[in-house]
Amino acid sequence: MKVFINKRIPEIGIHMLEEAGLQVALPESENLTYEEWLRYCQNTDTILSIGTDFRYDKEFFEACPNVKAIALYSVGFDHVDIKEANQRNIPIGNTPDVLSRATSDVAFLLMQSVARRASYNFQKVKEGGWDAFDPLHALGQELYGKTLGIFGLGRIGFQMAEKCKKAFDMEIIYHNRHRNEEAERELKATYVSFDELVRNSDVLSIHANFTPEHKDLFNESVFEKMSPNAIFINTARGGFHQEQDLYNALTEGKIWGAGLDVTNPEPMAEDNPLLELSSVCILPHIGSATVEARNGMAILAAENIIAFSKGEEMLNCANPEIYYHHSS
């Protein structure tokens, strides 16, 4: 069985695939055009997919009928048309859990960086702007006892809430499709409506899976309901927030600051006006960028491919409702 990997991953994952007797194909260049990527995919049985540059949609599946399984090097699968995959009995693997701590660390980092205007002040030092002491210049805010609102209190959201509870004794409120009894029990988290979440959060952090109905969910009407001292954090997907509305909310004083590890589009343009605001911190989608997390993702993705090659169900499957059979 042939496995196409569109970008190099940690060697441990590649080694696992080869040890399992699978033929691994890597592109000569990782900056593939859509047509080049498609040609590689048309000549493989399975794909270990890194990034969200290209979509796995109806057009793709029709162009690549030989593809029998896809293992994503990510937790999110919003760039995959699950309905189309289901119709073709194609399992879509993902990599939950192993990056929860790393991603929540980045959300926690962004919250603190925004609260203390760290990016702005670091840039001042780099540019030689370390001026004389000014008691009123670019003041930050403290987080002790504030209210953290979590949109999507799953694995990553729980880790973020736990950090905030222990470090700053923050009150935790959340909005989910379903109640999180563990968080309510262990973190004293309170389930609230979406409107209550927006109105009552001093820090609002997004940790939900992105779906089409979430597009631009955090827009002008939502920002207008937030506290003028609120901090908005997004480490999930850029599609959750409308960036022009976010910029307007910040410059008009409707909210206080924002920390983003995801933007829309990615990468963010270097002249994006959000980058000029002192109470904004933006990172280039580094939520899982630790040795430990990336190795763990490589292992899970390889395990998903290996399980499929043996005719077994993937260990972590985004569409477990499908039934499939395969013999190597």
Kindly describe this structure:
It contains twelve helices and twelve strands. The strands form two sheets. The protein has a seven-stranded parallel β-sheet with strand order 8-7-6-9-10-11-12, sandwiched between helices. A five-stranded parallel β-sheet has the order 2-1-3-4-5, covered by helices on one side. By secondary structure, the protein is an alpha/beta fold.
Note the topology.
Elements: E1 2-5, H1 11-19, E2 23-25, H2 34-42, E3 46-49, H3 58-63, E4 69-72, H4 82-87, E5 92-93, H5 100-115, H6 118-126, E6 147-151, H7 155-168, E7 171-175, H8 181-186, E8 190-191, H9 194-200, E9 203-206, H10 220-223, E10 231-234, H11 243-251, E11 257-260, E12 280-282, H12 291-309
Parallel strand pairs: 1-2, 1-3, 3-4, 4-5, 6-7, 6-9, 7-8, 9-10, 10-11, 11-12
Please give a quick description of this structure.
By secondary structure, the protein is an alpha/beta fold. It has helices at residues 11-19, 34-42, 58-63, 82-87, 100-115, 118-126, 155-168, 181-186, 194-200, 220-223, 243-251, 291-309; strands at 2-5, 23-25, 46-49, 69-72, 92-93, 147-151, 171-175, 190-191, 203-206, 231-234, 257-260, 280-282.
Task: Give short descriptive properties of this protein.
328 residues; alpha/beta; Rossmann fold; 2 domains; 7-stranded parallel β-sheet; 5-stranded parallel β-sheet; globular; disordered C terminus; hydroxypyruvate reductase [NAD(P)H] activity; D-isomer_2-hydroxyacid_DH; Glyoxylate/hydroxypyruvate reductase B; NAD binding; oxidoreductase
